[in-house]
């Protein structure tokens, strides 16, 4: 459920929802005014009062992705709100693994998506982060959350075609000293759920102990 008062028009949402479904099914390259119009059942010209161009449509997909996050309700502490936002973003990336990468490619420029940035600004203000550091802190934190979600869905954390022991075996220990020293730890099964929770807890501690600490 959205916590914001301003929502996009029903027709624009319908168009963008079809564009998002197309991206999920066939990739972002398949998203065009013509293809989306065909899914909606209208001519491409009929889209323009609601989505003015291909670029506007891509901005609209960013808007749809961020404003449909199940944002934490009011009344929660700022750490609970940040943890809830982070988990919501990760779940959205699982639902839309292709389109979600747009959040790395395009700024949040529409009215609704800017309100999500405002949610993060307010969270950091409530944490006691100095106003001069808010914008930088938001970029750092959102980059971690989005980066983890995109990397997980894109396969960056997957085992790949060559297991870790075989990767480090390509070179002798004196050329990969840290890899060989950490071998037993690196070979442990990867629990991304536990790792994500630990990362979020570390970021909350970083906000409290570094960003919001007196300097």
UniProtKB/TrEMBL annotation:
Molecular functions (GO terms): DNA-binding transcription factor activity; transcription cis-regulatory region binding
Q: What is the lineage of its organism?
A: Bacteria, Bacillati, Actinomycetota, Actinomycetes, Micromonosporales
**Per its record, how is this protein called by name?**
HTH tetR-type domain-containing protein
Q: Which SUPFAM superfamilies does the UniProt entry name for this protein?
A: Homeodomain-like, Tetracyclin repressor-like, C-terminal domain
Q: Which UniProt keywords apply?
A: DNA-binding, Transcription, Transcription regulation
**PROSITE patterns per the record?**
HTH_TETR_2
Where on the tree of life does the source sit, at the highest rank? Bacteria
Kindly give the InterPro entries that the UniProt entry links to this protein.
Answer: Homeodomain-like_sf, HTH-type_TetR-like_transc_reg, HTH_TetR, Repressor_TetR_C, Tet_transcr_reg_TetR-rel_C_sf
Q: Name the PANTHER family for this protein.
A: HTH-TYPE TRANSCRIPTIONAL REGULATOR RUTR, TRANSCRIPTIONAL REGULATORY PROTEIN
Q: Which Gene3D superfamilies match?
A: Homeodomain-like, Tetracycline Repressor, domain 2
Sequence ranges assigned to domain HTH tetR-type in this UniProt record: 9-69
Question: Which parts of this chain does the entry mark as a DNA-binding region?
Answer: 32-51
Give GO BP annotations, semicolon-separated: negative regulation of DNA-templated transcription
């Amino acid at each position: 459920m959205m916590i914001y008062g301003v929502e996009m028009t029903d027709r624009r949402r319908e168009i963008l929802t079809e564009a998002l479904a197309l991206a999920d099914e066939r990739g972002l390259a398949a998203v065009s005014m013509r293809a989306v119009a065909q899914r909606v059942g209208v001519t491409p010209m009929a889209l323009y009062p609601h989505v003015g161009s291909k670029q506007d449509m891509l901005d609209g997909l960013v808007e749809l992705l961020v404003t449909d996050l199940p944002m934490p309700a009011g009344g929660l502490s700022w750490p609970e709100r940040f943890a809830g936002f982070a988990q919501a973003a990760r779940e959205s990336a699982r639902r839309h693994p292709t389109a979600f990468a747009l959040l790395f490619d395009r700024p949040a420029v529409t009215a609704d998506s800017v309100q999500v940035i405002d949610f993060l600004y307010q969270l950091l203000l409530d944490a006691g982060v100095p106003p001069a550091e808010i914008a930088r802190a938001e970029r750092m934190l959102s980059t971690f959350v989005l980066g983890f979600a995109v990397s997980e869905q894109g396969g960056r954390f997957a085992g790949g075609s060559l297991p870790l022991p075989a990767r480090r075996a390509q070179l002798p220990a004196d050329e990969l000293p840290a890899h060989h020293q950490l071998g037993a730890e690196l070979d442990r099964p990867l629990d991304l759920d536990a790792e994500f929770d630990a990362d979020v807890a570390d970021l909350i501690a970083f906000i409290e102990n570094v960003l919001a600490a007196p300097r």
